[in-house]
Structure formats: structure tokens, C-alpha cells
Amino acid sequence: MIRLLESESIFVLREVAAQFNNPALLFSGGKDSILVSWLARKAFYPARIPFTFIHIDTGHNFPETMDFRDWWMNELGVKLVVGSVQEAIDRGMVAEEKGYNASRNLIQTAVLLDTIEKYRFDAAIGGARRDEEKARAKERFFSHRDEFGQWDPKNQRPELWNLFNGHKRQGEHFRVFPISNWTELDVWEYLATENVPLPSLYFAHERAVFERDGMLLADCEYIPRRPHEVPATETVRFRTIGDMTCTGAVRSSAASASEIVREIAALRVTERGTRSDDKRSETAMEDRKKQGYF
Amino acid sequence: MEIKRTELLRFTTAGSVDDGKSTLIGRLLYESKAIFEDQLEAVKKASERSGDGEINLALLTDGLKSEREQGITIDVAYRYFSTPNRKFIIADTPGHIQYTRNMVTGASTANAALILVDARRGVQEQTRRHAFIASLLQIPHLVVCINKMDLVDYAEDIYQQIRREFELFAAKLDVKDVHFIPISALKGDNIVNRSDNMPWYQGSALLYYLENVHIGSDENLIDPRFPVQYVIRPLTDTHHDYRGYAGRVASGAFRKGDEVLLLPSGFTTRIRRIDTYDGELEEALPPMSVTLLLEDDFDLGRGDMIVRVHNKPEITQDVEVMICWFSDRPLQPGGKYILKHTSSEVRCIVKEIRYKLDINTLSRNHLDLHIGMNDIARVLLRTTRPLFLDSYRKNRTTGSLILIDEATSETAGAGMII
């Protein structure tokens, strides 16, 4: 079954290379974008991946993610451009949130759109999946964005068979989601079968964490703690990797991809349940996507 | 890398909230444990707000803010669940707004269509529309779910009557496999387990049917077609002369050493190698994504097609299609559009609109040829370059096309080649 999904994703990635002049791949260092880059390597083998990689660096990333990113870019032999949220704050392009729950998640959308515009990318490939979240369930493989980078969910292009329409007007661009049909479990089964390299954060490790709103957050300099929030060392892993301020850990002893497959098969909470960025409101994802989040 | 095509079933569900479609999907997701606690928690909260007491499973499927506010589904949503036997992808399409556009979209890749009928209301105009679109899009398997059986005291004669009514209509359609199941999505009758409330029903429960329906022969394994999608030329020292034709097998089988015909050039050569990142293959079947290397050095590009010498598609610039129109700008007689067919893209002109089809009565209207959004018509197109095509009945990949509006870049219509 994962071979069917693989073949579909490779087809979509080759469509992007064929239909766009300057396509990019959004790389976060998380498992989904690692999977997409792994599939891209397969799609164009023995040639190099014909996409520039984009990383939107919130400045609050886990150091493990950054190390992995640099190593993996080198391994793939691709060009990386970094959109820096810190730089955008320093320039006054965006304003940082204040308070205990401050996150750079919202302002990274502006930096992403700015990066796409600056390098004139006409397509940005992302690792979003339809099973992740209810707004993402409505996404197309080829998702059209207007000249402001916005998504109009009520007026999407119909997508039939495997005929993807990448035509657009000047200034518009596309987001492309090659792994739309994969579920979290599919992803892990595939990563395990293929021995795909991953950041150590995904596997069980000891870490100082504290609890907030039912989530385990990493104790770090970017998250101010309230007086009663006392960190304790626990054996945890991360189910998703975003920036440190909005990504929660789960208690787990799963030390390999195949142990994670077993763990997820038995889990009863979605992976977005560890993301405070989705918990802000019932339509948090939809609202962000309309603005240009991926 | 063996591909087991029968491990994945794509199906579409058509109907409105009134038919209990969302409840049915919610039920399938819930029973197959595809719903997680945090999702259920969110739905519980939303149900409390709308104040209908019970958990409203329909809320699991409506994703967008405006859909929840209006209590309607606006756009196709994709849902996933799996059982130990199969993975399922549901294309959940709305029943009312832009029904044709959305249903056609969901139906285009489906192996099966679930059609919901309210047992109290019987076969409705909408039921006929759905069945027609399923037949037009050649969905191999139709499952008519006669729902809300709990509200008609699980009466067999009502089920039989609706079944006869549907069969009478379906006889006029091009459908191969129709299956009927009496259910109650709300109460869970005949969804996962056979219902004790309907001992007269001898068939299988819905989930059992979906897990076991034979889909191995849904794909065309007879006519070898390989549209060239992308040319791989590494131009590195180690692969200096490498020239690979990347693509997805549309139908049929390709083996190493096969004699093949290249279109449009008409040259013949042999397959030297079937390449993947994971190594060479002896054989490639649909829907595998592979790279073909040929014995001789021909200059193929995207839009060209590799086929077998004695099994050619039709090569023509005159294309007769049934078209579903999606755009609010009506189809223009004499109008020019971009046409996408497999990996090729050409321009075309609308030579003639033959008739408009009334999808409720299936009658042909030769007088009113105004083709607006959600209309279906038979149309003759003339393309700037020849296409390599098969009829849609024979081949869903080489028999389908889309038209793109040159001014707006939007997908304006979907065509099934006759």
C-alpha cells in the first residue's frame, strides 16, 4: 500500500518539475518534509532534485532540527534558502507576540510569502497531509494561491483524475502537496521500511519538560515559565516538529521508527493534538491557511 | 517493489445532510477507530453548542468555518480510514451546491460510489443524478445504501420497493455492478455487523462489502500506454549519456526487452531498462512511477507516448467528448481552450456542441445549447496537434481530459472521450 502512495507522490513531484519554472520545496526538518525530500530524490534519480529548498527559520528551532537540516541538505546536494523570522522582526516587517504563550508561528507566514516573492518561486511544495486537520482535508494536490498568497477554500479548482492544472496569472503561485493521501501511520510505516534518516527528537530521549494546558513543553529559553510550571526530566519524544514554542512532547519509550509505528497504531489522539498553534481556536488552521500558511 | 493495488479502495459518497451521508461517514470513521479522542472531544463540544444532545457525527466531516455555520458541505473533502484488510480514501462530495462539479471530481478516481437513499423518501431526483454521474465517470462499483431503515420499522417491502425503483432507472445507465444494502447510519445497522433488526437481509454489512469488493480488474491491464511525463538527464560525469523517460504506467504492462512504438514519431525500438531509485525492474504495471530507457537514442519529450507496436491508441485531432462544465463562463461554440490530456497539453477549438444532456431524464436537448456551470454536453473538439487517446470506457487515463480557460487559467471542464 505504501508503494501505491509512493508512486502517486512521485508522479506529483515530477508534474511540478515539468509544469513550473522555479519550484521550491518547503523544508521544516520535520518528518513530513523529510519524506517529501526522500521521495523527490527517488523521483529524479539519478539526476539531482530540481528544486530549491526553503527553510523558514523561526529562530526558535530545536538545535537537533538545525543540525539535521544542514547534514541532509548536504547529503541531497540541493541549494537551501533560509527565510529568517528573526531578521524580519529586526527589520520591523513583523511584530512579535508577547506573553507566556507567545509564538512565532503566525508571523512565519509573512516571512514565507516574502521569501517566495523574493526568489520568484512559482510553486512551493509542502508536506501537508489531508488527514492532519479538517481544513487540510479540503486541499488539492495543486493548490492555487492568489497574488497575496491567499487560499480561497470555497473557490478551489476542481481536480480530476491525475490531470493537474498549474496554469496561473502573473504574480500568483501554487502550493503543491505530494503526500496529501498519506496518513500519519502510512508515513511512519514508510519511514521505517525505507530506513529514512530522521532528527533524534522523534525518538525517545530524556528531556526537561513541563506541563501546560495538557501539553508537555520543552524547558528552554524561548518559553517563559509561570511560577507553578516546574520542569522535570522525563522520557519523551516529539510526534511533530515545529518550533519549540508550539510543539509538545509525548511520554514515550519508542526508540525506533518501527516502535513508533506500533505506538501510533495504538494511540488515541491526533498528532496535531500536540500542537498549540492548532488549539488557539476551532478554525486556527483554516484561518492561517487562508493567509498563506502552508 | 511490488504494488498491491487491491489494498487501497477509493470511494465517493454522494448525498446531502438530509440523506444522512455525513452521519454514515462519521459512523465508518468512528467504528474503524479512525477518529481520535481529541477529534471526538472537539465534536462533542460543538454538538453541545448546537444543542442537539447526542454527539453529532456529521460534525466530523464538515471542515470549513462556513460549512459548520451553514450546516452544509461546500467542497470535496477527503477522509481516511483503514481496517486490517484495506486502506480507504473517501471523497466526500456535497449534495447540493455545485453538485455536478464536486461529484465528478470525487468520482474521477473512485473504485466505488456509495449512493444514499432515504428509506422514507425513496429514489429522488438527486439519487438519479448521482447514479448517472457515477455511470458517466465509469465508477466500477455502485453501492446503494438505503438509509434510515430505523424510521420505517426496518420493513423489507420498503427496501424491496426502492430497490426495484432504482433498478428500473439503472437499466438505462452504463453500470456494471450494483449492490443494495439496507442500513441505519444513525443506529449502526448493517454498517460494521449484520443487523439483528433486519433478519430478512441476507447480504453483507457495508464495511465487509467495502473490504472485500473485487477491484483487481478495475484497471486496464491490456493496452500498454506510457505517457512521457519528464525526461531525466543528469548530465553528470557518472551518468553522462543517461536519458530516461520518467512517467507513470497508465495501463497495460511494460517489460524489459519489449518492442515499443514511439508516438508521434512512429519509430520503433526496445525497452533497454526499467529504472527506479530502488533498482531495475523486469516489469512495470499501472500505476507504477518508473523511468524507461530505450535501446536507441530518440529524442522524446513530455507529451509523447510509448506504446506497443501492435496495440496503438487512436491518433487524432478530432476529439468527441462528453463534457461536464464547471465554469461560470459558459462553454463557447468556436471558443478556444487549453486542453490537458495525459502529459500533453495542446490548444483546441470547440467545433460543435451536439446536444445538452438533461441529467434527470437522460434526454438529449438539441435546441438549448447554452452550456453553463454544472451542465453536461456532447461536444466535438479540434486540437492543434494530434492526441493519442482511447475511449474513456476502455481507459480512464488516456480517455480523460480537462479544458482550461485561457483568460482565467481555471479548470473549466472535464471531458470523457467517446
Task: Give the topology, please.
The complex is a heterodimer of chains A (294) and B (418).
Chain A: H1 2-19, E1 23-26, H2 31-44, E2 52-57, H3 63-76, E3 80-84, H4 85-91, H5 108-118, E4 123-125, E5 142-145, E6 173-176, H6 184-194, E7 205-212, E8 215-218, E9 232-238, E10 249-251, H7 257-266, H8 284-291
Parallel strand pairs in A: 1-2, 1-4, 2-3, 4-6
Antiparallel strand pairs in A: 5-6, 7-8, 7-9, 9-10
Helix pairs in contact in A: 1-2, 6-7
Chain B: E1 8-14, H1 21-31, H2 37-50, H3 65-70, E2 77-82, E3 87-93, H4 99-107, E4 112-118, H5 125-136, E5 141-147, H6 156-170, E6 177-182, H7 206-212, E7 225-227, E8 230-232, E9 244-248, E10 254-255, E11 259-263, E12 268-275, E13 283-284, E14 289-294, E15 305-308, E16 314-325, E17 336-341, E18 344-357, E19 364-365, E20 376-389, E21 400-404, E22 411-417
Describe what you observe in this structure.
The complex is a heterodimer of chains A (294) and B (418). With 294 residues, chain A is of the alpha/beta class. Chain A is 32% helix and 16% strand. The longest helix of chain A is centred in the first third of the chain and has 18 residues, at 2-19. Chain A is globular and about 55 Å long. Chain B is an alpha+beta fold and 418 residues long. At the A-B interface, helix 1 and helix 2 of A face helix 2, strand 2, helix 4, strand 9 and strand 17 of B.
